[in-house]
Structure to design on (278 residues):
C-alpha cells in the first residue's frame, strides 16, 4: 500500500543469490532511486543474521502487511507465490520472481483477478528473456503465431524434479532433457524455466500450453547459459535470438540476470490492475 512518501518501500521474500543482490543494492543505492527496504524474509532466518539489519528481518511472513510495503518481490520458490500471492496483492504491487508458478491456470486466473480487484500490478520480470516487450506487443496486436524457447546449461546448473538428470557424467556433451509445452515443463524444472514462464505470460494468446520449450544439458557450457528464442508471425515473419549469459558452474541464475531483476524493480511504479512484463 502506498505510504504517502516519495520513497517506495520494498519487501524482499527470499535471500538466495538474487535476494542477496537486491537487498545489498537497495541498502547501498536505494535512496538514489527512491527505494527503501521494508523487510527481508527467508525460510531459514539464521541466514539473515549478521547480513541484514535486525530491524529489517521479518520472522513471520504472515505479518508482512505490518511493514506497509509498496512492492513485494518474491525471489525464492514458486510455492510462496501459491501460498501468499493473493495476500501480497491485497496489500501491495507484487513482483513475481518465480513466474513458473503461474503455469497453474487456476492460480494464474486468481492472481489476475486479485490484481484487478485491488488495483495492484502483478509484475513479471524479464529475467533472462530477451525481447519480451516485443513478444508482448506482437501478442497484443494479434500477430504472434508461434513461440519456441530453448535453454541450454551445464547439467550442474539444473534443478529438476525426479531423476531426469541424475545420471549425467562430465564430458558426455549435449542431451535434450525435455521438449514440449511450457505448461508441461514448469513442474519438471520450476527453478530453471522462469524465463520461459515470463515468455508464456507475454504471449498470452498462446499461453503456457501453446508456447513450446526445450531444456538441454550440455557439459561444454561451463562458462555460460544459452537462451534461444524463436518468434513466428504472419506471412513468414520470424525472429531468432541467441543470448549467452555468463554463469558459474552450478549456478541456476546467470550473471546478467541479477542486474535485469534490479532494472525490473525500478519499473514497479504503478500500472495497477493488470499483469505487466518489466
Amino acid at each position: 500500500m502506498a505510504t504517502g512518501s516519495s520513497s517506495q518501500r520494498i519487501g524482499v521474500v527470499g535471500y538466495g543469490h538474487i535476494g542477496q543482490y537486491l537487498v545489498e543494492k537497495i541498502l547501498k543505492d536505494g535512496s538514489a532511486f527512491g527505494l527503501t527496504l521494508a523487510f527481508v524474509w527467508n525460510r531459514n532466518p539464521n541466514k539473515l543474521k549478521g547480513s541484514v539489519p535486525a530491524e529489517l528481518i521479518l520472522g513471520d511472513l504472515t505479518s508482512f502487511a505490518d511493514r506497509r510495503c509498496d512492492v513485494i518481490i518474491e525471489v525464492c520458490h514458486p510455492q510462496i507465490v501459491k501460498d501468499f500471492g493473493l495476500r501480497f496483492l491485497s496489500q501491495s504491487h507484487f513482483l513475481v520472481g518465480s513466474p513458473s508458478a503461474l503455469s497453474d491456470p487456476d492460480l494464474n486466473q486468481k492472481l489476475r483477478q486479485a490484481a484487478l480487484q485491488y488495483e495492484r500490478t502483478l509484475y513479471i520480470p524479464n529475467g533472462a528473456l530477451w525481447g519480451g516487450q516485443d513478444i508482448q506487443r506482437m501478442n497484443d496486436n494479434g500477430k504472434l503465431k508461434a513461440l519456441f524457447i530453448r535453454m541450454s546449461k551445464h547439467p550442474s546448473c539444473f534443478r529438476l524434479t525426479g531423476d531426469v538428470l541424475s545420471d549425467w557424467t562430465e564430458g558426455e556433451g549435449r542431451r535434450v532433457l525435455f521438449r514440449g509445452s511450457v505448461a508441461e515443463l514448469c513442474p519438471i524444472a520450476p527453478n530453471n524455466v522462469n524465463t520461459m514462464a515470463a515468455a508464456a505470460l507475454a504471449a498470452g494468446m498462446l499461453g503456457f500450453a501453446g508456447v513450446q520449450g526445450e531444456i538441454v544439458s550440455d557439459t561444454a557450457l561451463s562458462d555460460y547459459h544459452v537462451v534461444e528464442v524463436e518468434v513466428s508471425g504472419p506471412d513468414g515473419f520470424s525472429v531468432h535470438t541467441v543470448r549467452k549469459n555468463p554463469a558459474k558452474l552450478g549456478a541456476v541464475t546467470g550473471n546478467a540476470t541479477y542486474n535485469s531483476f534490479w532494472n525490473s524493480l525500478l519499473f514497479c511504479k504503478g500500472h495497477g490492475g493488470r499483469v505487466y512484463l518489466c
Notes: The chain has a mean pLDDT of 92.
